[in-house]
Design brief:
The protein has about 375 residues and is α/β, with parallel strands linked by helices. It has helices at about 30-40, 60, 80-85, 105-110, 130-140, 240-260, 285-290, 310-315, 355-365; strands at about 5-10, 15-20, 25-30, 45-50, 60-65, 70-75, 90-95, 115-120, 170-175, 215, 260-270, 275, 295, 305-310, 320-325, 340-345. The longest helix has 21 residues, at about 240-260.
């Protein structure tokens, strides 16, 4: 690396980015930003996808909103002037196809002249642990001896001026299907979208326990309890989070072995349509299957990541437990057989060990007798 390239990172498109110093002001897609926050890097701002609106989707926000990280709206509608005012040192997005950033236009970032990092979250490129490792590696490369100033001006310590009062840390919760086939790559299509020295750790809070909701055969739009989760403090090496991830895997493996319940993951699209997830197309669902969770495949038909069908088809698979897409743009489950359990699933869970440990624990509880 040259003297003028003191920092560098190769993303999952194979693109090598460099900078004269370690980037301190990070703007990120909300899913990536929530993961980085779990890993000790607080973004100065985050943006959404084409499925998102002008305010945070609670399912995708994690604790980001609670700790004051600004939300800029959908990435493909970002105002260049607003982005310039934030003075980012790096922009972090995700990629489903290994070629293009998912949630914003790469040309916009090119005009700013700052690095764009896109890490893989689907498309079969990486399994779940490898995906988590990539985000952990990026966070380790971004951590510095002190937190970045979070306001829009004075990105460089040498810049004169008062300290700006921006956000400190956060992590909300949200949802969104994508398929390139809606699930992977590019702007949103018609299907669901899914849609890699030390900063002080974020504040610790305990997640709210979520009990599965049981719906009757005539239920339409059942009452749903959405979990509220907050990032634990995770330092470099994220040892505590990795230990919790492994413990949550063990708890889920045990629960799956005891229950034997058939699990169907889906994203509601109204009373007449539903998107059923193909388990092997999603890193986290494929990993669940490897832990012994009996995931139901929706069967043949178009769509690499989702089969778009009607609720009758979903009911015909006779699921015991439904993982329903809890993001704002998805609709609640409609007509399902009596006694089916429901538990929330965020198809855009932040790619951090802490976030997936929470998901595994919630699922293990939902599988319990």
């Amino acid at each position: 690396m040259s003297e003028t390239q003191a920092w560098g990172f190769t993303d999952d498109r194979g693109t090598r980015s460099g900078a004269a110093r370690v980037p301190r002001r990070v703007v990120a897609y909300v899913r990536a930003g929530a993961a980085l926050y779990d890993l000790g890097v607080t973004p100065v701002a985050v943006y959404g996808s084409g499925h998102d609106g002008d305010v945070y989707d609670p399912a995708k926000a994690g604790v980001l909103e609670a700790v004051g990280v600004p939300y800029l709206g959908p990435g493909r509608g970002l105002d260049e002037a607003v982005l310039r005012e934030l003075r980012p040192d790096v922009v972090v997005d995700v990629t489903y196809d290994g070629k293009s950033p998912y949630a914003l236009d790469a040309v916009l970032v090119e005009r700013l002249g700052v690095p764009l990092i896109a890490l893989s979250v689907g498309g079969g490129a990486l399994d779940l642990p490898a995906m988590l490792d990539r985000f952990a590696a990026l966070a380790a490369d971004l951590r510095v001896t002190g937190p970045a100033d979070v306001g829009p001006a004075y990105a460089d310590p040498a810049d004169a001026g008062p300290a700006d009062g921006g956000p400190t840390s956060a992590d909300p919760v949200g949802a969104d299907p994508v398929d390139v086939d809606p699930a992977y790559a590019g702007p949103a299509v018609t299907g669901p979208a899914h849609a890699d020295p030390v900063v002080p750790g974020p504040r610790v809070a305990h997640p709210v326990a979520v009990n599965p909701v049981v719906v009757g055969s005539d239920a339409v739009g059942p009452e749903i309890v959405t979990p509220v989760t907050v990032s634990p403090a995770v330092g470099p090496g994220q040892g505590a989070a990795l230990a919790e991830f492994e413990a949550a895997e063990a708890a889920l493996r045990e629960a799956a072995a005891r229950s034997g319940l058939g699990v169907l993951a889906l994203s509601g699209a109204g009373p007449d349509q539903v998107h059923l997830a193909r388990p092997q197309a999603w890193p986290e669902l494929a990993w669940l299957a490897g832990l012994g969770v009996r995931l139901l495949d929706p069967g043949p038909g178009p769509g690499a990541n989702w089969l778009t069908t009607d609720w009758g088809h979903a009911a015909g698979l006779r699921p015991d437990l439904v993982l329903f897409d809890s993001r704002d743009h998805a609709t609640p489950p409609y007509a399902l057989p009596g006694g089916v359990r429901l538990t929330p699933w965020n198809p855009e869970t932040p790619p951090s060990a802490a976030a997936y440990a929470r998901f595994f624990r919630d699922l293990a509880e939902a599988l319990a007798p």
